[in-house]
Amino acid sequence: MKVFMLTALAFMLAAPAARASEGRPAEITWATGVSYFASPDRTVVGLGGGPGVQFWLSEDVFVGIQSRYLLFAGNALGLSAEIGMGYPMGKVYFPGGGVSVGTFFGSQLRSVRSDDPKLTRLPPLAVRAVLSPLHFRWQHSTASLLEIAYGIGTGRGGIANTFEITVLKLATAF
After folding, report:
1. How many domains does the structure of the chain reveal?
2. What is the pLDDT of residue 17?
3. Which of the 8 DSSP states describes residue 107?
4. Dist. CA 167–CA 82, nearest whole Å
5. Which domain holds residue 168?
6. 124-139 confidence digits (pLDDT tens)
7. CA-CA distance, 124 to 131, in Å (whole number)?
8. Over the stretch 149-162, which tens digit does the pLDDT of each residue have?
9. What is the three-class DSSP state of 8?
10. d(CA 146, CA 164)
11. What does pTM read for this prediction?
């Protein structure tokens, strides 16, 4: 139930941007892939997918919010906000990249260090660079067959590594 409530909250927060955007309409997205987050005190690893929304600020620049329900090491919800841009190469091929900021809620593998037995209650935060080499756009739809994101995150006792591979992301106008 928390997953659906957090996803609904993300859509409500993004709604004002939909009314403000001009040109291309807002798009509903669905993304599937693998997420990995590892810091000295916790690890989140998951495979899954979920809905999102993206808004085009111009013909080449978009902002979006994506959620993912992750299964593997427990159940977790990943939420991320992204700003990205693409470079049209031909009529359909549209490779690009961007920056995303994300967090995870739910089950996580946590390790209690002997020198600090308290668990961190705050959700982890990660900043990632995103590369989308197989991104295609036609009419009011987009499809990305591969997105690779790598970055750093917060963790108690040190910096976290975060890695995400999106295998399929589909978007259509609404």
Report:
1. 1
2. 46
3. -
4. 17
5. 2-114+122-173
6. 889 999 999 999 988 8
7. 22
8. 999 998 776 788 99
9. helix
10. 10
11. 0.78
